[in-house]
Fold these 3 entries.
Entry 1:
Amino acid sequence: VDAIQSICDLKSSANVLRQKKAGLRPEAKETLLDALSPASESTFLPRNRLAQAAEAVSANARVVLYMEESRRGQRSDAHISASEVRLLEEAYADLEDLDDLIGVASLRESQTVEEKILKAGSLGNFDDELTFLEQLLSIDPNDINANARYLRCLKLLGHWESMLVHSRWLIQNCASHAPEITPFASEAARRLSRWDVLEEVHNPSLTLRQNAVPWETKYEKHLGEMFLGFRRHEESLVIRAFNDAVKTLTPPMATASLVGYRQAADLLSKAHCALLVLDSAKGEHEPLLACTDDRIEAMSPSLRFREPVLACRIASLQLLGKRDKAGEIFIKLAKLARKSGNPGAAMAASNRALAMGAENAVVEIAKLQFIKGHKRDAINMLSKEIIRSEECLSENDRDAKNRLAILRLRLGRWSEITKSTAPSEILDNYRNATFLAPESEKPSYMLGRYFDVLLTETLEAPNEKPGSLLPAGARAQPMLPAEFSAREGTASSAFEYLPYILENWSNSLHLSVRYIHQVLPRMLTLWFSFYQLTNGEVSAASRQSRELQKKVRQGMTEVVEKLPKSVWLTTMPQLLSRLLHPSQQVVEVLMDLLASLIAAYPDQALWYVVPVTRSADSDRAARARSIVKSAVSLAKSKRVTEVLGAGGTLVKELIRVCTQGVPQRVRVIGSST
């Protein structure tokens, strides 16, 4: 306790506390942790002093524990000092507890630049963190801690050129801190394929204070030596540097594994990087050139863990002269950064891929432009890429056709979102996609979905035709088409789109059941609604309406015949719910479909159909019994009869049990009662 008291007194200043923490020897750290164990805690020692001691050895969970105990005996409105708030902020930031960090930050009336930096970095607002760090460095350019955080922020944003320039300037002007800055310069040089700079950074004259160098610096130094050996074709240097890197990673990995996978995952990605370079240097290029990397697939799907491995893959491919393959990896990196919510890193990777001639670089840049809100620029870029791809399209190149179909689908979707083009042009994009990729289910689904959008818009605004829809802020209405055509997206009534919806969605389901849950219930709903709205008006309806009903009936019949019976099993509750539909045409199709389903899958269908045969509604029960009778005659199997008969008996008994009266003063009822 006296030792802890002395340490706390010596570390009253926050700056001194951080300096002591950086230079604390391992044996002193273990001694202090033992002193901080619950068995050694004293009741009279102030908990805020214990929290300061715990912070000195990075025991952040204990910092929070002691601060909570310190505040527990005080009033709820008691003042909390700025130093205590700062202590809690640093602890929660290291623990990655963002909610508590925001709560603690709200205790401050005003925030300093350092506090704004801490909050922005913890919340992932790296652009704001970079701005605040630049303000701090304008006051003291030689602050090594601020410079290290500035370089780390540049790394997270993917600004490798700026990171390389700044780190080299620091190495030249702050030679005493070269070991802390060297890993940033080495990593930036490696990622930019600046091998001459990598040679310069790994100059032995820059290796200072070896005993004080942290393991991150040692690892980056050894990884840089592996790449240098790879470049010089010196396998012995690569193997020696690999062994040194493994020795460097072993102690921190053993410590992190005791805490959990999240702490060890970062170290595992570094080990993957070293192993990847070793395999490449030995001539094992198959994993490097493969479309998928088993190491990456086994890792957590986040930018933090996968990006270092992808960067090592890119550098190795560039050393082998495989610029096209390196460009493909840059595209993967850009997609990963975009999905992780880091558009800056995604744009940097996309530009590097474009410089290497990657095929999808322009498309990835267009996606980023669309996300940023530059929708018109994104559509223009995508349109130009489609024109360029069509000019060099080969008749037998299936991959190129599939890629062009994807571009057409994206252009149609973006035009649909922005309402920047007429429905006919959007439909043309979707139709071209179905023509280019006839074996894919997505184009047919997207085409049918847009027809459904047009149907819904026409129902909601019957006085406005889809052709008159304009983006928000438009000042004038375009001229309506001279002729109405459902195929071109300008139907005179909503349900004229229904035959095209049935046709395209049935084609999509015929190819794959990927969109079954989006398509089949909606298709049935539209079919039921159409006949319910038009029932009883056939005789008085116009010739055009009668032709539309004929098309819908024919289209639905083709859907029933085209799709496998197993697909319809998912919709049996919806089908049975409309047994009393007012349209006789719908009822006929329903009864035939349900009978065929029961005959094909009696074990699955009986749980839906047999209870309906005992329905309290006599009309519903009669139609259900008629369906069961048709199924038995259609199946021509004794087993179907036995299964349905047993199901009927079970339902009858269940109804009897539910309605059976319970005798008074009887606690136990047997199955024979």
Entry 2:
Amino acid sequence: QKQHHHLRFFVVRDERSNSIFGVCAEKTRASGFGVFFMSFRAATVRFDSSVVLSSASRHHRHRLGGRRAMRKTGATAVLHTETQKGANARTITSTKEWNALKDHVKDIEKTHLRDLLKNYDRCENLTLEHDGVYVDYARQRVTEETMEKLYALAKASGVKEKINAMFSGNPINSTENRAVLHVATRAPRSKVINVEGSNVVPDVHEVLDKIKDFSDRVRNGEWVGHTGLPLTDVVCVGIGGSFLGPLFVHTALKTNQAHAEHAQGRNLRFLANVDPVDVARALNGLNPETTLVVVVSKTFTTAETMLNARTVRQWIIASLGKEAVSKHMVAVSTNLKLVSEFGIDPKNAFAFWDWVGGRYSVCSAVGMLPLALQYGFETCEQFLKGAWSMDEHFATADFEKNLPVTLGLISTWNVSFMGCDARAILPYCQALAKLAPHIQQVSMESNGKGVTIDGTPVDYPTGEIDFGEPGTNGQHSFYQLIHQGRVIPCDFIGVIKSQQSVYLKGEIVSNHDELMCNFFAQADALAVGKTPVELRAENCPDTLIPHKTFTGNRPSLSIMLPELNAYTTGQLLSLYEHRVAVQGFVWGLNSFDQWGVELGKVLATRVRSTMHDKRNEGKMLDSSDGYNHSTEKMLNRYLQGKAQLKYDTPSDVFPCDLINSEECRPPSSYA
């Protein structure tokens, strides 16, 4: 270190080889604080004992608002705060807060939920509510002491600092050097959220205004198709977060009577899977003259999405001609060059940003465009307001009253301390049928990591296997295992006011009341169970007592919404998004990248090339192709069993009722 003219200099050296990589200068004048690097080469380096930096560029300067870290990935400069680096996963297991919880497990193992639920004060204390969303977690295997220790762990993990960093636009996705600002996509116009010194909220509302204008024109018949007919059918082409999130919201809204009135006469479908059966189902019965296609791909290069987009484009061209594409296809993308080359007018491309991750993108144009076309923009506004309500609560509420923080900590407790590997999401509301598949991606893609944010392998359980099904369907499917097999914490989600009211004369309760009776009963059955003593009192045969005994003591929590509409759907989405983030913050993970999905894509590219060559050569694979014997054998079996198509032959093959041609091959069923 050397002090000179309000600057303090640091020599930057490799920790392992001790070789010097460059020089860092820290500005020390009261007029401001800054750090910049003078000269160095691309490698991971460290300075000031707790922060790291590297970059492939020279004289690369970053202004930093506190002690920060920059980490090198390839030629990318990546920033993350000291709280991420120092207080998170690499050392979290050695903190006194983590070990206090480990020691506390033996105290919890001495308890049973049937006894804990008799404690009136505990039941009162283990409930939370915000803006109509009510959460009861008294059926979790926790006491007030457990929660105190969990909140202490959150503080030790820097959860508050990480929440603040996220809402401030800091690049907390360090492996991709990106901010994480899906919250900005639902922020009111008056908010200021900066990324690299620029307020992004006006950009968000510029896109929302464009969505409103376009969706209004399509819905009122001002924007028509190539032949002059109104566009009443929308097919949204996208995969992953471009599909699961919007589908979840659409499924939640379409049976709400008020929202259904706004969607009258309209049809929204999703095409995600590259399987041609999905194409057939998505287009079955649609008229190209009345169909608008929304292609969702940030880069316009996603393999599955673009193949599906080309397929649907050809469906339109075959019926209406090439010139119809610009009237029947729009895009959600940032790659205007490829959008234009595809045949879509770049003016009809709706932007979103690299600080919106795919699985967190439903509040961006990814979800808002198709949903506004179906339900009207006013419905989307209510959805965004609901999400923002929970966002603000997450950002500002004390941990002890904070729904996402508390639920995230409970999940952390179940996974890392109680040994529960899975979670069941059980909405007692058919309209939430697509919640579990969406949260599968949000949770498992976010926290399914084997290393901490700084690359250290984790030595403690993280992530959880999420699955679910609406009640009461799930009761007749997998609840057997939940009640008498593995211990799987459950989220029960109920709605006070049903979207549809049915009550038959002579019935004891309404249909919705019957559903909710199971909502209340199942949670108690898991918690309390049934003992051999109780069974004998009911004259149960001794031979059946082991089979009919329910151990109970199986954790769950209950979430109740006043009703399911656009606003509460937004609240529920935000609650789960932030709950997942809290888990990652405690575990010290980067919950906002997804490198685990890349390897399979790379290998598929090689298989694609091999399949193309072997088909056209009329040959089978052998050992010279470089695959392991198992893969070689399966590929050959696949090629031998397929119709012998030459891929370079210029012809389209479609199901007969989609495109009439001599080459069509009808599928057996579209059901």
Entry 3:
Amino acid sequence: ENLLEGAERSEMSHHLAHAYSAAAQCPFDTGMVVIMDGMGETYRTMRAALLENDPAYASDLLFEGDYECIPSDVAAKASESAWDYREGESVYTFSKSSSDRTISVRPIFKRFVEERSPPALYNHGFENMASAGALYSRASSHVFGDWNACGKVMGLAPWMGHVWDDDEDEGKMEAAQLEEPVMWGHLYVDEGEEGGFGSDVSAMKGLPHIARADPDLFDGEGNMRRRYDFDDCDGDDFVPPPQEESEDGSGSDQSSTTTPRVIDAAIKNVRLPPKVALDAISLSHRIQSDLENVVLDFVRHFKSETGEKNLCIAGGVALNSVLNGKLSRDLGFEKVFIPPYPGDDGIAVGCCAYGLWGNAALPAKAKEADVGEGEGEREEKKEKRERVRPPLWSEPLPPYLGPYPTDASIESALQDAAPWLLIEHVPSQSKRHSLIAQELADSGVVALYRGRSEMGPRALGHRSILADPRKKGLVRFINERVKSRESFRPFAPSALAEYAPDWFDLGGMDSPYMSLTARVKDGKRGKIPAVTHVDGSSRLQTVTEESEPSYHALIQAFYDLTGVPLVLNTSFNTLPGEPIVECPRDAVRSFLYSMGSIEMLAMGEYVVRRRDADVRSLLGKVKKDGTVVSPPLRPVRAGPFVMESTTAVGGGPNSEDQEVRTTTRVRMPSRIMHDSRPDKDRGWFDLLDDLEVQVLAMCDGENDVQDMLAEYLDDPDDDDETGGTGETETQDEQYQANLFSNIMRRLTRLYEYGFVSW
């Protein structure tokens, strides 16, 4: 549906839109664009538009005959195929003229791949295709059960060659090399010819790794561990500073034990990979190595064929930062540009660019054809387009294209969550940066929310979680306690661009969008272990003062404090499966959901910390002479709720030991931490027991703790001389103490999860 009434409608094929997303905004006027993804447009769709002479649809077939195509007889094969053929890899050359305000984009190579299964299958069944991107995605599905977890595969591959000491078996553990490749050969040579591209997916047949239930995934009690939860940390990586004593001298008064300063023994244990993880490493390394070999050969070939000195890369494969780093450093291009959104999210930018400037390289008949219009009308339309054509983009668009949060929206989100937050207004940017830098240097984890959000999958300092890159133990802590994900996954640094060459082997390139992986220099790896992957690599973002003055100043503040010109940076999202936070309310919810593992939220002009449950205020304060200093506070619910209780009975009807298990859960949509996503059970939250739901029901703003206790204690006037429960006085006191403790425990828990406040 066209939402702009009267606007001229235009469409373009998938790879052409990718090409425009890079060529239109790259910082050079001529070059080559390489597009690689899982699948692009269908050949039949492109052919139908060409045969119908559709002026509103642009595709590479308008240049048919002018570019090399594999297979060369794709038209015949597509017509005979049970389903169709789709774009796999494409290469273009382009030129831009600022004076004429024109862009010329020409395809020079296209490779189509056959649909080998019904396109009605999930995601069009593209994992059965033989494009380089589709084969990589098939490995992703085999290892992680998700075709779109290719970034995890890339992060898993470098673990090949790492050796773990297995103290229990007094031996060594490492992944075995897969000798047979998954893909090989030249993408620019047909499969039937000598040296042509080939693939063999036999390594990914049978039971997927994600579905295996190997014995070493289970402990002696039958509990299953995460299959890919391993790393190279050890106890020496976790050395928290001394805890601060509370007022009663009992140690830290933090209600949460998940902060980086209080890393418990459970997180310190060495994590060894199970057998299935070693096999996953083997497959991931094989597919990553094959991708690099095939694509480097492919791009090198067309660099030689075209003589182009500059390179643009787009399509889903361009999210592989390890491959990008090698393309940038190893092939001798003068400049390399990868947009911050090389995947399908960048298609919108490509369509916009085509709509603004069209394609000066199109044959005249394709440019000017307008069915049903006379020559004069066509010329008038053409002149009008040329008259309103804007100047070309003189530099890449900023990656921060999301909606801008207003001060009012930030203040509203903070006010709604005020009972659970400690909010400090810090209008001075330099003071905020000093507070953040000090928190990072003290091993704290900080969430940064500012300005417009990033477009694309990388957090680039506007929706980021930051930490100290010097602290190796933070890798496991953030993976496990903050991000709720596998501990093998690496973290990236944001580095001051002017110092990046001193720390990383960038080969003269920069990486403003976290698109390249580079080697950390040997003398620096021990200084920044939290952002150095197991193979000594790092996927970094280079930050300049010109492009990002505020983020640059923040990293500079950390540099001034520590002598390290970079920070650990990962995306700001803490709920499992949640995308990067967008609006202020998302940021507050994600911050609270971290349960104290993120110690500070910097949002707009505010520095925010989580408020601990002040249980003393629930009891009030009375002097020895009986004078009331402060009355007891009355807890109040965050809103109405629905309760559901289920009972499951295990064992057969004749079993003497039937197991009865009761589950009580509630749903409170107005709760600030409520997660209504269908795949997250629409926000249902399991309570400890019926007592907890009863306490929640009594939090109406009218009852204090004594009122709640009274609900469970008999009236002494109606009891015998022992009073209370009718037991001995000692037993009665013990009962009341236990009841009080249980109620307070549940009130504290309900507060921490945002159900009640006081």
